[in-house]
């Protein structure tokens, strides 16, 4: 069971990618290109930070939102990796390894986002059926859920 954001595989993969990006930008010509170095470091650091923040929100919809931001940060990091290869800042083997790690990270985020969405859907269905049952027991005949916004609309009609 996941009790902390550090238990999430997606966070672990993002953290590993971040550490590797920081390591390869410490020396060589990439270290002297301050703007590029800062950009790739910021985008790689953003992904684990957004996963941690989303996990701390305790709401599936908010968590899914932050996973989307983390995935976008990863896409930016992948773009920087391609740029680093074109500038000859990174060799082919390291480029392939980092791109492979980032692809694994994207997959982990998609799985986590799906789980978060399923949790949200289950909560909405549970709330809908519980509310419907309570209204039925209390004599209220109509209850409808708007699943797009998560708002439950009720019409009180005496039977």
CATH topology call of the largest domain: de novo design (two linked rop proteins)
Oligomer: single chain
Pairing-aware structural class of the strands and helices? mainly alpha
- Separation, N- and C-terminal Cα atoms: 46 Å
CATH class of the largest domain: Mainly Alpha
**What is the CATH homology-level superfamily of the largest domain?**
23S rRNA-intervening sequence
**Main sheet: strands, sense, barrel:** 2 strands, antiparallel
What is the H/E string? Answer: HHHHHEE
Anisotropy-based shape: elongated
Radius of gyration: 22 Å
How many distinct helices?
5
Side by side, the strands of the main sheet go 1-2
Task: Report the β-strand fraction as a percent range.
Answer: 5-15%
Overall tally of structural domains: 2
Mean pLDDT equals: 76
CATH architecture classification of the largest domain? Up-down Bundle
Q: Write down how many β-strands occur, each being a DSSP E stretch of 2 or more residues.
A: 2
Share in helix: over 70%
Any low-confidence stretches, pLDDT <50, length ≥5?
131-136, 138-159
